[in-house]
Amino acid sequence: MIPVFKPALDSEETDGVISVLKSRWIGNGPVTKEFEKKFLSYIGGKYCVAVNSASAAIHLSVISSNVKQGDEVITPSLTFVATNHPILMQRATPVFCDVDYDTLCSDPSDIEKKITKKTKAIVVVHYGGHPVDIDPILKLCEDRNIMLIEDCAHASGSYYKDRHVGIFGDFSAFSFAAIKNLTTGDGGMIVGRTRKSIESARTLAWSGISESTWERVKGKKLKWQYNVVSTGWKYQMNDIAAAIGLAQLKKLESNNLKRKKITQKYNSALKDIPWIETPTVRDFAKSSYHNYVIKLPQHLRDRLSEYLAKRGVTTTVHYMPSHYYSLYKKFSADVPVTNRVWKKILLLPIYPDLMQKEQDYIIDALISFNP
User: Which contacts of 269-276 are long-range, i.e. CB under 8 A and separated by 24 or more positions?
Assistant: First the structure.
């Protein structure tokens, strides 16, 4: 089977991991610090903490935004549930906003309609690596003193008006999961505007302990001499993952360029098929091309997915909206575009090592499908 996603790894990642293993320091330490520094430099951010997942990064972002019981958080339903779980974990109320039909990103005009006196934060998702039109949302947040959280899980290497996403909000969360453009196996990053908020998040990511084990060892303190200043979680990244991340970061732009070329080839080959809508990229956007999403009528979508599977081509749907799950059904979801569009979307294989002959095979299969 040709998968939808596949990580692009080579000897550089292997060498990095071996180097960490030989150092005998495999937990959170100097390599993680180096990865944080280089990732921040790449995106043009100010402060960050490397963590073990984007779920952890979003959770810390919601906590650091001081979201509490009784607050409302505006968020898209068309996203992975990890975007929205932290809202429930803080006993706040998710208010689902709609998406732009073409890009599947959070719709600024619908966000504005959903703001109330209880709105504490807005979460936007750069879906598939296409940046949200963030300027109007930033203005809403600034005018009404609302926190902004960017979910950049798909968006390593995505730019909005020539600036990397993840630096606009009060906090942002990146994913380095196995299938992402930049992978560490599992991992994530929380990025923030202020040193104080990010150092607080760093403490929360290490069980509320005020100083990391590496810092204590490096400072030649006795290992039990630390303070616990709050409750927290074990959310830290380790140096094995960070070593993979450092190698991946070096080739992120070149790998994303490969994704762009794959996208262009799909678009060219599929543009004249009347029952397929190919993706849109707005003028303000430079996408990471994490997903390649076509739209087609639902009855054809499901049939096409089964047909391609029989031909050895994997497809998937990202995502069934959160409000379709029993956990979220009680929350407001006036999202007509989301309800309509998620039934039409289908993801085709896209990853840097997708061979030309494999993509030709996928395209031929699509063309030969009888609707």
Answer: 269/363, 269/366, 269/367, 270/294, 270/363, 270/366, 273/366, 273/367, 275/300, 275/371, 276/366
Q: Which of 250, 282, 315 is the last residue of a domain?
A: 250
Domains contained in the chain, number:
2
Among candidate residues 180, 220, 250, 258, the one labeled active-site is 180
Whether 180 sits among the annotated catalytic residues: the reply is: yes
CA–CA distance, 9 with 183 (Å, rounded to integer) = 9
Instruction: Name every residue whose Cβ is closer than 8 Å to that of residue 348 and which is 6 or more positions away in sequence.
Output: 4, 266, 292, 293, 294, 313, 315, 362
Look up the domain containing 334 and give its range.
252-368
Residue 92: inside a domain: yes
User: Of 186, 215, 250, which marks where a domain is finished?
Assistant: 250
How does strand 147-152 pair with strand 119-125?
Answer: parallel
Q: Which parts of the chain register pLDDT below 70?
A: 219-222
Alpha helices (H) along the chain: 11-23, 30-43, 54-64, 85-89, 108-114, 135-144, 195-204, 213-218, 239-250, 252-270, 298-310, 336-341, 356-368
Residues 99, 200: one domain?
Answer: yes
Summarised one tens digit per residue, pLDDT across range 140-185 is 999 999 999 999 999 999 999 999 999 999 999 999 999 999 999 9
Q: What is the CATH number of the domain that holds 342?
A: 3.90.1150.10
d(CA 266, CA 350): 10
Q: Are residues 94 and 322 in contact, defined by beta-carbon separation less than 8 angstroms? A: yes
Tell me the pTM.
0.97
Among 126, 181, 186, 118, smallest CA distance to 150 is for: 126
Question: How many residues in the chain?
Answer: 371
Contact of 181 with 256, CB cutoff 8 Å:
yes
Which pLDDT score, from 0 to 100, does residue 220 have? 67
Tell me if 177 is assigned to some domain: yes
Q: Which DSSP category does 87 fall into?
A: H
In a domain, 308, yes or no: yes
Buried/exposed code over 201-217 (b: 16+ C-beta within 10 A; e: otherwise): bbbbbbeebebbbbebe
Q: What is the pLDDT of residue 297?
A: 97
322 and 182 in a common domain:
no
Residues 264 and 356 in one domain: yes
Q: Are residues 165 and 49 in the same domain?
A: yes
